[in-house]
Amino acid sequence: MSEETAAASLQDDDRGARVQHVASAELPTEHGPFALHAYRDMRTGAEHVALTVPTPDGAIPLVRVHSECLTGDALGSLRCDCGPQLRAALGQVQAQGGAVIYLSGHEGRGIGIAAKVAAYHLQDEGRNTVEANVDLGLPVDTRDYAAAAAILHHLELPVVRLLTNNPDKVRGLKAAGIEVVDRTALSVGRRIENAFYLETKRILLGHNFGPEEPKEQI
Q1: What do you get for the CA distance between the two ends of the chain, in Å?
Q2: Which pLDDT belongs to residue 62?
Q3: Is 148 helix (H, G, I), strand (E, B) or coil?
Q4: pTM for this one?
């Protein structure tokens, strides 16, 4: 997503106009207790949630903006690192304070679950995750992070430390008015089943899993 797209997503009267806060409740989890906040995306109709823990005085909140992944988050898929990333982020945010923003409508980098399964089929035949989307006539990535930024503004978290490997999330949040003072890689869940997928994201999509590494051809 370009900075121009993110900025355009916030052309409504204020940043909060992108989302509507619906309700909040307490959520006990295996990682500890969170406050759970539900939001409705006024542009797409999607429903997002934020799980928050108070940040200690003087500390900058740790934030994970997590894209919905049914196969990884709920079904335990080993084709990606999404499930381990979500669980690691919940644990780190619980320990340090901050928020996990869970964005629905982001399945398969925005193509949806059915198209994602079709892309998996092409990957089984040897295509990488980028080629599979293109072969299906679909965008490589349609995700928009303006809703996440609006949620952070509503939560009064305009300055964050971001847990992500994806530079687009940093750019998208910054373009939408969030100050990202630090990016921490979330390198968990790498297995033989997803090694090629993660290398494709590193080389073709610019994901940074830690120290800078030279890009190689896939």
Answers
A1: 23
A2: 98
A3: helix
A4: 0.87
pLDDT in tens, 106-157: 999 999 999 999 999 999 999 999 999 999 999 999 999 999 999 999 999 9
Q: Annotated catalytic sites, by residue?
A: 141, 143
- At 208 the pLDDT is 87
Helix (H), strand (E) counts: the chain: 8, 7
Give strand pairing partners of 207: none
For residue 181, the surrounding DSSP H or E stretch is strand 179-184
Give the list of residues 6+ apart from residue 10 with CB closer than 8 angstroms, or none.
18, 146, 149, 150, 176, 177
Six-digit token string for 100? 């996990």
Per-residue pLDDT band for 17 (boundaries 50, 70, 90) equals confident
Given a contact cutoff of 8 angstroms between Cβ atoms, the answer to whether 86 and 189 are in contact is no
| Sheet strand arrangement including 19-29 | 19-29, 32-41, 47-53, 98-103, 62-67, 159-163, 179-184
Which is nearest to 93 in space by CA: 161, 149, 154? 161
The answer to whether 194 touches 81, Cβ cutoff 8 Å, is yes
Residues 6+ apart with CB under 8 A from 177: 10, 15, 149, 153, 158
